[in-house]
Write a structure and sequence with these properties.
alpha+beta; about 30% strand
C-alpha cells in the first residue's frame, strides 16, 4: 500500500539509499564512490526536499520515491527498493502514484535518474513508457594539481565548471562539468581539467525531441563511460 512518508521514514529511506550507493559503486567506482557517515545528513536533506512546494514523498513497506519540482518536471533522484524483485511491483505502484500526485501545469513530465547498469530499475522505467532523454559520460582523471580551481574555468577555449561532488559521494576531489561539449574536444578538455585539480570530467548529453544515443565511439575512445541515465515522459 502506498502512503505518504512521515518524519521517521526519512531515516529509513536514507539507509535504503546508502545501500543503493554501495551497489552503484560497483558500476562506476569513482563517480559513485559513497561518502562515509553521511546517512543522518542525507535523511535531513531528504526531509528538506520533501518540504519544498510541489514535492511528493511516498513509500510502501519496502520502497520509497521522492520527487521535486524542477524546470517543468517532477524530478525523481531518490527512488529505491529494498530488493530488486520489488521494482515491477512496489516500484511501479510508487512511481504511478507519485506521478498522479505531482503532475500539474508546473510539472508537465516526469524525469527519473537511473544507473545504466541497474537493469531491474531500467526495465520498469521502459515498461512505463519513459525514454532516455539525457546521459552523463564520465572520465576518471589523475589530478595534476592539488589546488583546485573552483568555479568557472576555461579549458582550451571551452567554458566548464569545477565543483564539489554531492555530499553523499566521495570521488576523491572536485569534478569538472564539461556540459554538452563536442566529443572530439572532450578528451583534451578532460586533461586540462586534471590540471585544475579535477578527479572526474563529466559530459552531459540531452536531446529535446528524441532519445540520446546509447553509444558515442569518440567519447569511449577518449576513456569516457556512461554510468548515468535520465528517463523522461508520462508513465502509462
Amino acid at each position: 500500500m502506498v502512503r505518504e512518508m512521515g518524519e521517521a521514514d526519512f531515516d529509513w529511506a536514507a539507509d535504503l539509499m546508502g545501500r543503493r550507493r554501495q551497489q552503484y559503486a560497483e558500476y562506476s567506482p569513482v563517480f559513485w564512490r559513497p561518502a562515509e557517515g553521511i546517512e543522518a545528513a542525507h535523511a535531513g536533506f531528504l526531509r528538506a526536499i520533501a518540504a519544498r512546494p510541489g514535492a511528493v514523498a511516498l513509500r510502501t513497506d519496502g520502497a520509497f520515491a521522492l520527487s521535486s519540482s524542477h524546470e517543468g518536471r517532477a524530478f525523481v533522484d531518490d527512488f529505491a527498493v529494498g530488493t530488486p524483485d520489488l521494482w515491477p511491483t512496489e516500484g511501479r505502484e510508487l512511481l504511478l502514484a507519485l506521478w498522479d500526485a505531482a503532475r500539474s501545469d508546473e510539472q508537465r513530465t516526469l524525469r527519473v535518474v537511473s544507473a545504466r547498469k541497474d537493469d531491474p530499475k531500467r526495465s520498469l522505467l521502459i515498461a512505463l513508457g519513459l525514454a532516455v532523454a539525457a546521459r552523463w559520460w564520465v572520465k576518471e582523471l589523475n589530478a595534476t594539481s592539488e589546488a583546485a580551481s573552483w568555479g568557472p574555468v576555461s579549458l582550451d577555449g571551452h567554458d566548464a565548471l569545477i565543483m564539489p561532488a554531492p555530499p553523499v559521494y566521495d570521488p576523491g576531489g572536485p569534478v569538472c562539468l564539461l556540459g554538452d561539449i563536442e566529443s572530439e574536444r572532450a578528451g583534451q578538455a578532460a586533461l586540462a581539467a586534471a590540471g585544475h585539480g579535477a578527479v572526474l570530467a563529466i559530459v552531459q548529453r540531452e536531446q529535446a525531441t528524441s532519445a540520446v544515443p546509447e553509444s558515442d565511439p569518440t567519447l569511449e575512445a577518449a576513456g569516457f563511460h556512461n554510468p548515468s541515465e535520465f528517463y523522461e515522459g508520462e508513465p502509462a
